[in-house]
Every structure is written in structure tokens, then in C-alpha cells.
Design a protein that fits this description.
The chain contains ten helices and 21 strands. Strands 5, 6, 13, 14, 15, 16, 17, 18 and 21 form a nine-stranded mixed beta sheet that branches. A six-stranded mixed beta sheet has the order 8-2-1-12-20-19, covered by helices on one side. The longest helix has 29 residues. The chain has two domains: 197 residues, FAD/NAD(P)-binding domain (3-Layer(bba) Sandwich); 174 residues, D-Amino Acid Oxidase, Chain A, domain 2, CATH 3.30.9. The radius of gyration is 22 Å and the shape is globular. The protein is of the alpha+beta class and 408 residues long. It is 33% helix and 29% strand.
């Protein structure tokens, strides 16, 4: 262990989002001999707490952040139930076999399946914890907020050995290992080795609903694409109502949402959502994002590792993007602790993350593409599969465990 820590004595992390900050904290705690430098273009004075974007975290991610003492317990809304469903086809459906799956925390013997909170609510305590670590160990831990990274350069005759981090004014700083943890949305990213434009748009905003369980998350398969509701913390919700984040995926070339007024969107949502979701009574302005798959086939190139959205940007149908990134971070630090050399650690991380990454990419890609297929009987088959899964308790439990903790 000491040899691995010595070999990876200088680690650069590029990107101070949730995955990058979690990685920095993990490295600070579990690699006590390593010098860790965190770079981000965002200045330290920027009020990241005000960022309202919604994040969904699986239970495994919540547990990791608790161990880092950076989980804002009071500000998060636990997910206690997940309802996955499809409207029954007009013909050919067997009465009494609802095309739905219920996943419940109580059935799995856990307090929650996951939790929902805003981006700023999560990142702010992570950033505070990181800055506190830097103040406690300034010779070992360095925060370079407000310092954009222009590029990474492999140093060494074989393309490995070290990585040069190019910062402002063309200055190149040398590290034993560089980890890219920057995210961004699909439309703004440079294209990676594996890419596909789903020609789908995600309309994102918030709803106010009457009825339904406060801890209920909804995944509804519609003819245009998946429609998801994530429960939000109760603050500011009118009496007798609850708030939920909306992710409404539709075909970009035949968008049924773009031209509708808010009142018309409410009517359409109430027609599409299942009864357990409750009734939509209010909606915020919606923002649109293009959806696609953009992924690297390998996490490691020389002495550079990519994690999170820098490694794989997925369709939001399963809500697993950030969870994959946090599992990447944990596995990388674990590999650096256990392997005898840095290169051995990088081989270990590539091997260890392959099943989880590729199974999740394959599952989300299949579901996203399936909404563009117009095969006769496809909706009937998908509904039948949901109904069958709901009747097989071990299979439901396996699905719930994989969504909470990833593939192990």
C-alpha cells in the first residue's frame, strides 16, 4: 500500500463537480501520502449552492457521501418507492395484469432506495469539506478553483509515466496521475469513441402535485419516450401538495411539448401519468436538452483516467449518470490503495469498472432506442415484461439492488 501511495504521489483532479469533489475527499482521506490538486474554472467565490438542477442519487451513493461526512441529510428527499409503468395498449392486453413494477425500500430492508436534492445543495457541502481539508493540510492538498485546464499531455516516451496539466499562459504542471471529472450536457460535449444521438429531447422542470406518496418516484413509458418524476423536498410546497422534478423525454423530430402552453402541458401530463403519481396542478417553465450517448470505450489512457460524465454520458431513463461517476471515484481510490504500483492500479480500475459501466450503458441505450422503434406489438411486449417482472420477487429484488449499488 505504501508503494502505491508513493508512486501516485501527485494527483491532479480536473473538475469540481460532485464526482470530482468526492474523489478529492476520498483521496485526501484514504491516500494520506498523496499530494492532491483540484482544478476547476469555477471561482471559489461562486455561489454554487444556488444551482437548482435536480440530482437523483442511489442508496450506495448516499452511503458513500455519508462516509465522507458531506451528505446534507435534512435537505434531501428520500425515495422510498419507485413505480415503473406503461399505459396498457388499446388492444391485446390481458385484464388484471397491469404493465407495472413496484420497487419498495421496505421490501429490500433498507431505509430508502435513493434520494433527490438540488445540485447546489449537494456540491456546496462537498466543496466546504474539501476546502476544510486543504486548510488542515495545505502542503498536501491544493484547491485551484478559478483555474481552467486547457489540456492534458502525456509525458514519457511510451505515452505514460506522467501527465502534464496545461493551465493558463501555457504553463504545464507535471503529475503522476490526472483524473478528468468534468461533465456537461450531451450537446456541449466533444464526441468520444462511442456516440449516438437519440434524436430525443428532455424537457426538464418542476411540478406541484396533489395526492400520491411523498417518497414516490415515477418512470412512465409513453409512446414518445420515458416520463420521470422525482420527489423533491417539501419546502415551499403549498399545503396538501408535494413537489416533483420532471424529466419528460420526447422525439425531437415530432415534439408534442414544445408548442404547448403551461396549462396544456398540465392536461397532457395528467393524461400520461399513472394514478399513483397524483394530479398535476402546477408546472414551472421547462428547459429542453438534447439526449444522446457519449462514452469512452476505456477509462484509462496512459496516466489519465476519466470518470463520471467525462467517461460516459447516458440517457437519463435510469437516472444513473452521477451514481456511475461516484462509483468510478470510489473504485479508483480503492485501486490506488491496494495495487502495488500506479500502472497496476489503473489496470485494476479498468477491469473492475467494466461490468458496471457497460451493463448500464447497454441497458439505457436499449431503452432509449426502443422508443424510436415502431415494431408491431413492441408496446405489448414491453408491458408484458413489466407485468412479469413485478410477479417475480427475486428478479425485482435483483433489479432494485443493481439500481441502488450498481453491478458488483
Amino acid at each position: 500500500m505504501a508503494e502505491a501511495e508513493s508512486a501516485a504521489s501527485r494527483i491532479a483532479i480536473v473538475g469540481a463537480g460532485p464526482a470530482g469533489l468526492a474523489l478529492a475527499l476520498l483521496a485526501a482521506q484514504r491516500l494520506p501520502q498523496a499530494q492532491v490538486t483540484l482544478f476547476d474554472a469555477r471561482p471559489a467565490t461562486h455561489d454554487v449552492a444556488a444551482d437548482p438542477r435536480t440530482l437523483a442519487l442511489a442508496l450506495g451513493s448516499v452511503q458513500l457521501l455519508r462516509r465522507l461526512q458531506a451528505w446534507p441529510e435534512a435537505a434531501a428527499q428520500p425515495i422510498t418507492e419507485v413505480h415503473v409503468s406503461q399505459r396498457p395498449p388499446a388492444i391485446g392486453w390481458r385484464p388484471g395484469a397491469a404493465p407495472e413494477v413496484w420497487l419498495r425500500a421496505a421490501d429490500e430492508g433498507v431505509e430508502m432506495l435513493g434520494a433527490v436534492l438540488s445540485y447546489g445543495t449537494l456540491v456546496a457541502p462537498l466543496q466546504r469539506a474539501w476546502h476544510a481539508c486543504c486548510e488542515a493540510a495545505p502542503a498536501r492538498l491544493v484547491s485551484r478553483m478559478g483555474t481552467p485546464v486547457a489540456g492534458l499531455k502525456p509525458l514519457g516516451g511510451d505515452g505514460g509515466g506522467h501527465t502534464g496539466v496545461e493551465v493558463d499562459a501555457g504553463i504545464v504542471e507535471v503529475f503522476d496521475l490526472a483524473v478528468v471529472a468534468e461533465g456537461g450536457v450531451f450537446a456541449d460535449q466533444s464526441r468520444k469513441a462511442l456516440t449516438h444521438d437519440y434524436r430525443q429531447t428532455a424537457w426538464v422542470g418542476q411540478l406541484v402535485l396533489e395526492g400520491g406518496n411523498r417518497g414516490l418516484a415515477i418512470e412512465r413509458f409513453t409512446p414518445s419516450g420515458p416520463l420521470a418524476l422525482l420527489p423533491l423536498p417539501a419546502a415551499d410546497a403549498p399545503a396538501g401538495t408535494r413537489r416533483a422534478a420532471l424529466v419528460w423525454c420526447v422525439a425531437a423530430d415530432d415534439d408534442p411539448v414544445a408548442t404547448l402552453a403551461d396549462g396544456e402541458r398540465i392536461v397532457l401530463l395528467n393524461a400520461l401519468l399513472p394514478e399513483p403519481a397524483g394530479r398535476v396542478v402546477a408546472i414551472t417553465p421547462l428547459k429542453a436538452f438534447a439526449l444522446g450517448l457519449n462514452a469512452e470505450t476505456t477509462l484509462v489512457r496512459g496516466r489519465t483516467v476519466r470518470i463520471g460524465n467525462a467517461a460516459q454520458t447516458l440517457h437519463p431513463v435510469a437516472g444513473q449518470g452521477l451514481n456511475l461517476g461516484l462509483r468510478d471515484a470510489f473504485a479508483l481510490v480503492d485501486a490506488l490503495r491496494r495495487a502495488p504500483t500506479v500502472d497496476a492500479a489503473l489496470r485494476r480500475i479498468e477491469w473492475a469498472r467494466t461490468p458496471d459501466r457497460w451493463s448500464m450503458m447497454a441497458a439505457t441505450d436499449f431503452l432509449a432506442r426502443s422508443f424510436t422503434w415502431r415494431w408491431p406489438g413492441l408496446a405489448l411486449a414491453r408491458g408484458g415484461a413489466l407485468s412479469l417482472l413485478n410477479s417475480i420477487t427475486p428478479a425485482k429484488s435483483l433489479l432494485a439492488r443493481q439500481m441502488m449499488f450498481g453491478r458488483r
